Amino acid sequence: MASISDIIEKFIKDLMEDSDTVQIQRNELASLFNCAPSQINYVLTTRFSREKGYEVKSKKGGGGYVKIDKVEKLNKDEILHILNKKIDKEITYIQSKMLIKWLMDINLINKRESKIILCAIDDKSLNTPIFGLNDILRAKILRNIIEQLFNIEE
N or C end of the chain: which has fewer CB within 10 A? Predict the structure, then answer.
């Protein structure tokens, strides 16, 4: 069964089917779905972020609204910025999986590439005897793979 967040996300994406932009009123949407406006905020921040290909602008006040725009693919500088934010000196396998899924969601890698990357950074592949070393190695390997895939030089 779909969660309320999934339903709201689908509703907004359906509104955007014929256009790259949509303007909604948070309170009206909350009323339509019989939820708190904070639930709408949650969906907007988690499902319609820049990383997922959207830009959200809001105007508060009496005639306030939320405007959601689909944006073009991220450029190399934006990818590098996000990678630096997501991959620090270490990264867990779960965090890596989420990052790889994001790269697939924005069509920067395909399913096959994702499987190869995940296999390379899996704990079974790294298998170090020192606690915490897997996460450090994983971050270095993941950063190197992504930099090479997108020809990003620091």
Answer: N
